[in-house]
TrEMBL record:
<feature type="transmembrane region" description="Helical">
    <location>
        <begin position="397"/>
        <end position="420"/>
    </location>
</feature>
<feature type="transmembrane region" description="Helical">
    <location>
        <begin position="78"/>
        <end position="100"/>
    </location>
</feature>
<feature type="transmembrane region" description="Helical">
    <location>
        <begin position="201"/>
        <end position="219"/>
    </location>
</feature>
<protein>
    <submittedName>
        <fullName>MFS transporter, DHA2 family, multidrug resistance protein</fullName>
    </submittedName>
</protein>
<keyword id="KW-0472">Membrane</keyword>
<keyword id="KW-1133">Transmembrane helix</keyword>
<feature type="transmembrane region" description="Helical">
    <location>
        <begin position="106"/>
        <end position="125"/>
    </location>
</feature>
<keyword id="KW-0812">Transmembrane</keyword>
<dbReference type="GO" id="GO:0016020">
    <property type="term" value="C:membrane"/>
</dbReference>
<feature type="transmembrane region" description="Helical">
    <location>
        <begin position="46"/>
        <end position="66"/>
    </location>
</feature>
<feature type="transmembrane region" description="Helical">
    <location>
        <begin position="363"/>
        <end position="385"/>
    </location>
</feature>
<feature type="transmembrane region" description="Helical">
    <location>
        <begin position="269"/>
        <end position="296"/>
    </location>
</feature>
<feature type="transmembrane region" description="Helical">
    <location>
        <begin position="308"/>
        <end position="326"/>
    </location>
</feature>
<feature type="transmembrane region" description="Helical">
    <location>
        <begin position="332"/>
        <end position="351"/>
    </location>
</feature>
<feature type="transmembrane region" description="Helical">
    <location>
        <begin position="231"/>
        <end position="249"/>
    </location>
</feature>
<feature type="transmembrane region" description="Helical">
    <location>
        <begin position="7"/>
        <end position="26"/>
    </location>
</feature>
<keyword id="KW-0813">Transport</keyword>
Amino acid sequence: MIAGKKGSVFTLIGLYILTIPFFNGLNVTTYDNSQILGHFGASTTVFTYSVYIPIFSMLAFMPLGLKLGKQIRVRTMILSVSFLSLLFNTASLFAPTIGWFTLCRALMAIVSVIGIFASMVPILLKYNPVFNMALLYGILQFIQKGSQHLYQYIGAHFTSLHNWTFSVYFLNVNFLVCILLAWYFYKADVAPMKAVFQFDWRGWIIMILFLMVILFLCAEGQTRNWFDDPKVGLAAALLFLIFGVYLLHTRFTENPIIDPDVYRYKNVVIGAFLMFYIGIMNGTGSVVTGYMTNILGFDSVLGAQTHLALLLGLCISIPLSTYLLYKRIYLATIWIIGFACYGLYHVMLYLRFYPGIDSSDFFLPLIFKGLGMGFLFPVSLLYISEGVPPKLSTSRMMSGIIAQAVFASLLGGAILGTFISNMNIQHKTGLSQQLTATNKQAENQLASSKRNFVFMGLSDAEAQKKAEKSLSNQTAQTAMLLAYKDIYLVMSAICFLPIFIILLFKLWRRPIGKVEAEPIPI
């Protein structure tokens, strides 16, 4: 019996490891973007599309990937998607243009979605009756979130060793390992959840059109200055039109991808909003890495060390939050801890954005961000699934994904970039207005810089221009610091607000309820 348990644990670990490369098909190449842009010589807008298209392809293909993951024989499916991922990933190395490169990455993202669902189904079927649902969600979240940050850190190191192709080769090794693991662990080639194949093709096409409009807004909204451009206004109007068409479509479809009936469950509505809210709080992490790279001039490896801090926070918080859920601690306790960790993360960065900020200043705040992620993500996924029948599991899953990934992370990230740019311009204008003859400190600094340039052999006119440019650059960096301080001050208030609401209205003073929906914790 002990040997059987040991074999069962060994099999479970092997099945979990098998899911990791499919989760990280795009994560491992996160830090390759600047090199890939230089390799293809594409414009910034075109390259922005090439970054977004694989992500949106993955999101768009999730409903169909979930269906296919249940229908086709598991061993055949895993071996096929591993081989196809290997093929498309390798093909991206030989792409002659940025368009072909984007197509290869998008195809790899699509087959990775099928790989995620196909590799998770045996775990859910074999161990779900044994595992408490909180344990199952906690383990899968730990693997997904933990491997994401580990792969981004490893990918940056592989890129720095030679060039962007090294991280692609590293991913190929991962898919080869998938083939070996599938060959070993999947002895029987069966479709464990096979049923009559029914899919909402019309609703899927409508959803793809909706995501294409969001893709346009994410890629070009900031460059077009949003609603100052009539095409952005037209795109926003199209979103409402497509949404209306989809609602009309659901009235004549038996099993739509997102069934409006799912919103009769109060926890789905509140859970989707909370996932959007968490996505907004989580999105400011890109601000940190952008500041480290673009303003402070840190290389990709130093910037990637932020993921180690996040990973450390996750290693502490996910096991702890899983244990608390398993022990049926009140939901309010977990929500408060998670929001408090995010609030402290933003407050600490607000206090640390000052001239002379160093990489070490980011480590502790990012640990708190990792803590917040580990407390909030598992409980959010469980809460939005609470009491939802299996028939509506895809609907509640897609509701959470669209709220968090599409609206909060992708579209919200693009809007946040515009907000930072506008704040930066305001601060730079205000600081520039202070560079007058009456500002003795600025005048002395200008004179000192000019003397240094003259000492270096420049003419009086050249030294004056160099000194003015140097002072202008310092003003620009100070303006950016002030803009980021404003962002993090506002975000800290946004993070602490839910805590006061939970305490004031005495919300969620109960443990997690029954979760019957198919547990796909993406």
